[in-house]
Every structure is written in C-alpha cells, then in structure tokens.
Predict the structure.
Amino acid sequence: MAHTARIFSGIKPTGHLTLGNYLGAIRQWVETDQHRADALFCVVDLHALTVDHDPARVRRLSRQAVTLLLAAGLDPERCTVFLQSHVDEHTRLAYLLECTATDGEMRRMIQYKEKVAREQAAGRSVRLSLLTYPVLMAADILAYGADEVPVGDDQAQHLELTRDLAVRFNQRYGPAFTVPRAVLPKVAARVMDLQDPTSKMGKSHAESSGIVYLLDEADVARRKVMRAVTDSGSEVTYDREAQPGVTNLLEILAACTGRQPLELAGAYASYGALKRDTADAVVELCRPVRERHAQLCADPSYVDEVLRAGAERARGLARPTVDAAYRAIGLMPPA
Ligand code: AMP
Ligand code: TRP
C-alpha cells in the first residue's frame, strides 16, 4: 500500500505573524501540504519561553497564531492544528533526545549563537532552554514520525540536527524514528527585512518598520513596502549580493504572483514601479486572511474546539512512538 507522507511543521508565538512566515511556510501548508499528506501544524508555545517573555502576551499570541493559521486556510477537516503544550509527548521525548545530543553540537547552532549575542547585548541572561531548543524541535518532529518538514531556509540547520539525532538514536537503540527531511520553498525561502535587506524579516524584532505583519491594515502594509530600502544605482537586477533590497522586493512579488524573480527583474525599468506593484500584491495577498481572521475572532469557541480535537489526535499519534523510545533507551515500563 502506498504510504501517505506525514508532514509536521511549527510556528512560534513570539510575535505577530509576518509576510515572511506566510510566504516561507504557511502558504505551502495551506496550498499543498494539507491536501497531499497527513499533515500536522503546531503552534509551538513552549519555544516562545526560551527568551524573555510576558505570560499574558504569549497566551494572546498563541491564540492569534492559531486563528491566523485557520484564517490563512488550514482546514481542520484536512489537517491537525494544535498547541505544543497541550501534548506532553513533546517534552517527554525532548529529554531522551537531550541524552542523545551533545553539548558541542548544540553550541554550534547558528540561531543559538545569534540569539545569545542578542540577549547579551540587551543585558539579559541566556535561558538554558535557548540552548536545548533545537532538541525540543527535534522531538516535535520525531514524535510524529514525520517524513517531511516544510520550513523556511533559516531552519535548515535545525533539521540537519534532527536527522542526526534520529539516526544516532536508531543506531544505538534500534529503529525508533523516521528520519525526516526539510522541504524548502522554491522562492521566498527567506524574506528579508524591508529596512535591512541583509537580515531576515523576523517577527520578534523590536523595530517593525521593515516588517509586514499579516494583520497590518492595507495602508500600513503599503507604506512599509513603498518605504523599503533599495540599493544605489537605478537598474532593477536580481542579485542578492549587489542589490539585496531590490532582490527582496522581486522575490516577494514573485512569490505573490507566481512568476519568476529573474523574469520580473527584466520587466521593470524603475524602483518606483516595482515597489508599487509589490505593495499592491502584498495588500491583496493579506486582505482575505485579515478579513477571515476578524470573522474567526468573533467565534472563539470554534478555535477552542479545533485545538481540543487537534491535541487529542496529536496525542494519539505521538504516544506510542514516544513510549517505544522510552522502552528502547532502557527505561522500564510502569507495571
Ligand atoms: P518562526 O517565526 O521562527 O516560528 O518561523 C515559522 C516558520 O516561518 C518557519 O518555517 C520559518 O522558517 C518561516 N519563516 C520565518 N521567517 C521567515 C522569513 N523571513 N522568510 C521565510 N520564511 C520564514
Ligand atoms: N524552530 C522553528 C522556528 O523557529 C519552529 C519550530 C519548532 C518548528 N518546532 C518545529 C518548525 C518543528 C518545524 C518543525 O521557526
């Protein structure tokens, strides 16, 4: 019998969801993944506790993220949508993977190094969970036997770690885990900040003028695109090194319209026209999501029910896999 692929992906409730999240991840989940596979999408709230956080804000952003995923088109009849903290198997498995990973490999994670630098620059201490975060992420994925993990480019290293841990565990203790692979989008795998096109458009950044949020009003989103930093010179060329600002706009426009960035570059003689068309495309892309989000907010019990059913299904899938890993590693089953 043909094996239906299992897909798992997650998103952190550390800020309002951005155009980068949408183009780099969510849109693939909605348009393809939920239709072609047994797909689980998780708002990974435990991951939001790895840096300085406000409890009420995490709670609010978790609900907002779930509501936005549904507004973007995830259909609970086709896929499983849930909150990470509702399923204990994630942290249960994370501990076994902490006993599989090494201190050295954790400290090599690029995102860890970047975030440590950011925390220290802000005079904050670094939480231990920031170091172990990729292990929890590996547990998220391995608990479900996921074959594929659709993520943006920034998660590629964490996926490599997940694969290494799965292989190592299987070699030591017997075949417990499916070895997953990352699936990256062809365009817009890394949407850059409009004000700083050499860094990722990230939802947790404090300075927001270069970040388009999915819930931005149309005029706000438009203004952000129109004020995007472009490069010196006046030719529109698709070249990440030489013209990072223009290239980012071309990628965004390409992702919104389904065209090729290189081909679009040839179609524009000026930055102004490129910005205008990109702004229009972004506004039109976000509008229906924002409208549907407002409708869903009016019915919180619907979202609650989606989460309840999602957690129940997720628990049922993860439990046997994690139990088997507990046995394999040498822990005695309860009598
Ligand atoms: P995060 O916001 O870090 O929880 O990321 C959720 C998903 O969105 C992950 O698959 C990321 O790779 C993806 N993502 C986040 N920011 C961007 C971006 N600027 N461009 C493309 N993908 C992104
Ligand atoms: N670490 C991911 C990010 O920052 C979020 C995440 C957590 C995730 N667990 C996951 C993504 C499992 C895919 C699969 O974007």
Remarks:
- The mean pLDDT is 95.
- The CA atoms of residues 226 and 272 lie 8 Å apart.
